[in-house]
Amino acid sequence: MSRDDARFGDFGGRHVPDPLEEPLDELAQAFDEIHDTDRFRDRFQRTLRSFAGRPTPLFHAERLSEAYGAQIYLKREDLLHGGAHKINNCLGQALLAEEAGKTRLIAETGAGQHGVATAMVGAMLGLDTEIYMGKKDVERQKMNVFRMRLMGAEVNEVTRGGAGLADAVDAALEDLARNVADTHYLVGSAVGPDPFPRMVREFQSVIGREARDQIQEQAGQLPDAAVACVGGGSNAIGLFHAFRDDDVAFYGAEGGGEGEGSGKHAAPLSEGAAGVKHGMKTRVLDDDTEVHSVSAGLDYPAVGPEHAMFRAVGRCDYRPVEDDAALEAFRTLSELEGIIPALESSHGLALAKDLAADMDEEDVILVNLSGRGDKDMEQAAEMFDLG
Ligand SMILES: *Cc1c(COP(=O)(O)O)cnc(C)c1O
Question: In what order do the strands lie in the sheet with 7-8?
Answer without folding.
Answer: 7-8, 11-12, 280-284, 273-277
